[in-house]
Amino acid sequence: MTQFKNKIKQFGRMVQQWCSPALFAVLAAAVIVGLLLFVPPLNGYADNGDFYRMMDAVGLYHRLGQPYRIVAYINPTYGIRQYFNENTAALFSSQPLFIRPAIWLNQLVFNRLVFDIRFQGIIYYVLFLGALYLVVRAVTRGRGLRQYVLAAVCVFVFADSSYTLYFNSLFGEAAMAVTGMAAVAALLLLARREIRPAWRRWLLLAIFLFSAGLLITVKQQNAPLALSYMVMALGLLPLLPRRKKLLAAGVLAALLITGGMTYKLITPEFQNINRCQTMTRGMLLMDKNPGKTLKEGKINPQFALLRQSVYYQSYQPVNTRGTVVQRDFVQRFDFVWVLRFYLTHLPAFGRILDLAAKDGQLTQVKAVSNYSAASGRTKQAQTHYFTGFSSFMGTFFPAKFAFYCLFVAVMMGLYAGGAYLGFRRHQAWPIMKLAVVTGLGSIIIGVMVISVVGDGDADLAKHLFMVAQSTDWLLILLLSDVTNQTLFREPETAV
Amino acid sequence: MNRWLIVIFASLAGLIGFANPVQAAAPERVLLVYDSENIQADGQYQIDSLSRILASLHIVVQRENMSAYRSGTLTDQRFSGVITMVNWHQSRLTNAQFLRDRTAFTGKKLHIGQNLTAAEQAALGAGQILTHQQYTLQDTASGARQLLPFMSDQWSLFPATGERIGTLQQQGTDRQYAFGTIRGNQAYLPTYSASGLTNVLSTRLLAQFFAGRAAEQNPVLVLTGVTPVSNLPLLRRTTAFLRQQGIPFTVSATMTALNPELPEHSAYLRALAQVQLDGGVIFWQVPEVYDLTAQTAAILRQQFNAQLGEAIKEMVYPVGISAPGYWQFDRTFRQSLTPADQTVLLPDPRNYDLRRYAPTTTAAPLPQALAALAWAEENTMTGVEALRFAAPTALTIALPTTTKNFQALRRQVRRWPQQTWRALGEDPVARQLQGARHTVAITAGQYTVDGQEAVLGQRAVPHAQAKRTATAASQVNAFTRWQGTVLLIFIIIALAILTAFLLYGRRIYRNQFQRKGPKP
């Protein structure tokens, strides 16, 4: 028995010696996620009708002579255009930066004409493992047993299938998942004392800037996140000597410009969709007497009858793109109008925010299939492989907007204490943690408010993607600080 | 007594037969073969217009693209006529199999457009080919004239003698040519248009050539663009104006049953009820469908029944259906047209892609169809006091959306002071609309709902508020629903206690450093 115990101890020591918690997490995630993405049956998210935006931009098309499935099944392969692509991009996005390399890799090793979605998976998979490495490095200290447990928790949280299924799809959320992890991890590591050589710090700063920039530009709705990442970047200030503060200002300005540009480049079509839906799927839905409110806003009250519909809804009595709806309804109000409505009708605002809170942790898109038609599964079949964390959070995380506010307030309060002490002790790390927690908190609250004001309850679960990831980050940070007892102090050296 | 009854019954039956001679005969079948849709020149709308006019003449049309024509399709047994439509004459698209079948075909042959074959030329007699001309189209019967756009193509024209429809007066000379030519089994139209005098005369040719009659009839005025989100005060003003002018009209209105609890829902239906009191007849307009699935027919049926039910509750009695022309050519869509005795076929919409699920080349046979034509586009004619058509026609005008539009509508009405309109509601023949739960019918201005007479403005069916059924939540749902609130309250209380402890503890901590007792 003792011999057996010794064997285990010996094995443990060997692992400790050869495999850091970060590497352990990466290896575990590589196996778990690799099984999901690359081993048949193929898993991913099916097209919900939005893929064309990216396909047109990067030169992919529905393969001729093969059924192109929407919602019901994944399409494993796409055609690669061989001639000039006359389509203009439906929207401005950084996502082609992730898709193009996948196409090149596909053309290099597989086929010049046919694109296999798994090559997209490979690109995200590699980036994801890198980001996960940074995450675990950022939340663990040394090689104690507890650090390995922390690493395992990170895998459990971030390698959850609800996130990684995005990799085998053309959804922008895949890029958001990876860059969201990398940006925060890079910032946390930057403020760590033991990251010594200057080039490493520059590298981390570059990772942060790149990731945040890509995340902000991947979708228009992420434009306001520039402000949250600016708040996080404020944590850089104590790190820098006085003369290099200009650098921090540059970083902040770059983020702000990226966000502003992304917002500016929203096409009129998308603006109209969002405007229309913030009414039909938001205000009109939540208001007890929507016709009266419209009348007060000098809009024909009959438009209240568009309640519940979406922009491209079929079987509608009226065309939303026709002159009547556009001139007399969509162009008659803006988001300030909607925000003013919500601020003067707080119960309605509360109801729709609670609706958002309900969807906040539902990360697995239920509307589309996770399987291809070849798998023989029923239409819109969902995988349950490694979805423990998302299922748990979806079921038990309180679905109340007030709870999210409270959660953010408590987290900020906790880290404000640490930051106060850090400030007095001239430690940058606790201050950075406060900045990061504040930034993540603002993402949680901001994304919910922006989603409902910007687009009502349409596509809510997908719009709230960053809420779930930010909540995960906050919980992981807290767990790490409690485990390492670093909530209020920074250890002198690595434990 | 019995003899009187028989006499009355017989005269009624005669009246029905007289008023509706079209329905008595079995529908004719015509094959329409076009060279190209020629989308660049909006040629598909010409095909749509022609198909709708044929439907209004109670002729069942089968449409074939010339390149897709298969040998043996055109036979005397299957078709009584064939129309060759050249939409894109420059392409000179042709199909040898079709030409061979057409030569062997002994029924009626109509050629529309250019590129007449030698055989067709021969059948039509001596003509000449003219190019770079401007013509004035004249209708000797009504005295209507219209200056046609300058023509730089080559038109084969035939002398204005014999059986002809309209004449083309060559500008600058006194030479006249026939516009529509009929020689035995061969007919010819040099051009086709979906509006104006060209359309009026083309319709007359179609009626005379294929249906063997050209009795002119008054058009029906149809107000389109009436939707649940329309400007209701303007709708009321418009219909009140039409009533003042003594103009009978029909309203093609889309409906919704999505938000029946909103006051705007009943406001819309009340406005439609007022339309009926102003002398308007309501047609249920089909919704816009962009994504067809196998369920489309069922969804449309369910929507129709729900919307009809809601309408009847508010004393709105639709008696017909209006739909875009392309709905005739889809098996899924055409099921939605069957509940009505009377259909208005609207032009194909231009602001969205026309999708089909089970497309057919043959149009659905409709009991009675009215082909829609934009009224304002008829203003290009001169020298005519009133419009009359050889086929049942609906002249459409959009519901004004602004006061300026309303003034334009008034001007349009005053432009045709002599115009006589056909009142659909006053037809002595019963027209009915059959839903799953309700049947609405109208005979000589009298509405009946489910066989019972309905008086406009008085409720026929008691207005019952639908009761909401409470949804039973499962135990887990109930738990997760309350769990959030309970946890929230618990945490707030815990936080409050913690804060109190923190403050209390801080005071104790501070007190440790404070001197006790009196200051020295």
UniProtKB/TrEMBL annotation, chain A:
Record key words, sorted: Membrane, Transmembrane, Transmembrane helix
Key word Magnesium present: no
Transmembrane segments: 21-39, 117-136, 148-168, 174-190, 202-218, 224-240, 247-266, 401-422, 434-454
Source domain of life: Bacteria
Protein name: Transmembrane protein
Organism: Schleiferilactobacillus harbinensis DSM 16991
Lineage: Bacteria, Bacillati, Bacillota, Bacilli, Lactobacillales
UniProtKB/TrEMBL annotation, chain B:
Transmembrane spans: 482-505
Signal peptide: 1-24
Top-rank taxon, per record: Bacteria
Keyword entries, A-Z: Membrane, Signal, Transmembrane, Transmembrane helix
Protein name, per record: DUF2334 domain-containing protein
